[in-house]
């Protein structure tokens, strides 16, 4: 058994200490936001650094959900995250599976065209003109269709499908399955790590959609959550969705509302991740190793 020298032990302890300090520095801002969101607005207005919630209250969250704009924005973001993720998974997985089969006609040409989209991007103005000509301005489809898939995601998922033996597909065809049935009944069940990984990526992207919403959504009634958060963070007024700082003698602290809104914006993805963790750990190296 190899003996660890004193210098190596000291080096390991210093590394652990530095990593612990770095973790603390990264976690404290999140902890502070949580503390402020649960702090009584009157206590927070007194100023000072909070290390725990003072006057523990749900007042900030109750106020946010009492406004018409905020719950609607959460519903829109949830719709985008669920419906958009399902469509993206269907499009990406079906295209990647087709390109992974060598018998597909025009396979090499299609791969070159997809690679071309990764090397040359049209830019903001052509994208906006396309969305406008498709009459999708102020439509939620403008936030879904441009993000359905990407060349990078297709190539990564194709690398995963390349590792699935052709014998499984041949056996399914012998049993009477067509190409769609092979993809649905054989390939997708074997690809849960990849599906979970890309599903998480797509869900986070749709939940956090911001730039496309700024470009294409002018009607505040259709704003997703991130656009509402942006408006709250930069708006110097004291209203959120029609509320005021003082209602019937109740103090509403704008800063506390912002902190509560940020927590609500982060919480759904944080709750979803543990259910996908076992698949995510397997699928995080999707397509990176082929053997």
Automatic annotation (TrEMBL):
Q: GO CC terms on record? A: plasma membrane
Q: Using the record's annotation, list all stretches that form the ABC transmembrane type-1 domain.
A: 74-276
Asked whether the keyword Manganese is assigned, the reply is no
Bilayer-crossing regions? 16-39, 76-99, 111-130, 136-156, 194-217, 259-276
In the bilayer, the protein is annotated as: Multi-pass membrane protein
Q: Where in the cell is it found?
A: Cell membrane
What PROSITE patterns does UniProt report for this protein, alphabetically?
ABC_TM1
Xref: InterPro entries? MetI-like, MetI-like_sf
Q: Which UniProt keywords apply?
A: Cell membrane, Membrane, Transmembrane, Transmembrane helix, Transport
Kindly list the biological process annotations in GO that this record carries: transmembrane transport
Pfam families recorded: BPD_transp_1
Entry's family note = Belongs to the binding-protein-dependent transport system permease family.
Q: What is this protein called?
A: Carbohydrate ABC transporter permease
């Amino acid at each position: 058994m190899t003996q660890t020298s004193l210098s190596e032990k000291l080096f390991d302890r210093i590394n652990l200490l530095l990593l612990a300090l770095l973790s603390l520095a990264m976690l404290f801002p999140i902890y502070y936001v949580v503390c402020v969101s649960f702090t009584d607005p009157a206590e927070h207005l007194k100023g000072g650094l909070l290390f725990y919630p003072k006057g523990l209250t749900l007042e900030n969250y109750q106020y946010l959900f009492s406004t018409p704009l905020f719950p609607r924005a959460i519903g829109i973001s949830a719709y985008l995250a669920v419906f958009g993720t399902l469509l993206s998974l269907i499009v990406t997985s079906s295209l990647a599976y087709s390109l992974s089969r060598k018998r597909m006609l025009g396979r090499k040409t299609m791969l070159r065209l997809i690679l071309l989209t990764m090397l040359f991007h049209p830019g903001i103005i052509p994208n906006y003109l396309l969305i406008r000509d498709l009459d999708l301005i102020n439509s939620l489809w403008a936030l879904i269709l441009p993000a359905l898939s990407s060349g990078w995601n297709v190539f990564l998922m194709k690398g995963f499908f390349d590792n699935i033996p052709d014998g499984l597909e041949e056996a399914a065809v012998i049993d009477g399955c067509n190409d769609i049935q092979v993809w649905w009944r054989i390939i997708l069940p074997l690809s849960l790590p990849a599906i979970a990984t890309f599903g998480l990526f797509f869900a986070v992207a749709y939940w956090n959609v911001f730039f496309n919403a700024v470009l294409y959504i002018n009607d505040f009634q259709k704003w997703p959550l991130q656009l509402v958060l942006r408006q709250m963070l930069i708006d110097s007024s004291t209203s959120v969705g029609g509320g005021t700082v003082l209602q019937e003698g109740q103090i509403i602290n704008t800063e506390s509302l912002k902190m509560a809104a940020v927590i609500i914006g982060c919480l759904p993805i944080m709750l979803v991740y543990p259910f996908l963790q076992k698949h995510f750990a397997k699928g995080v190296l999707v397509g990176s190793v082929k053997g």
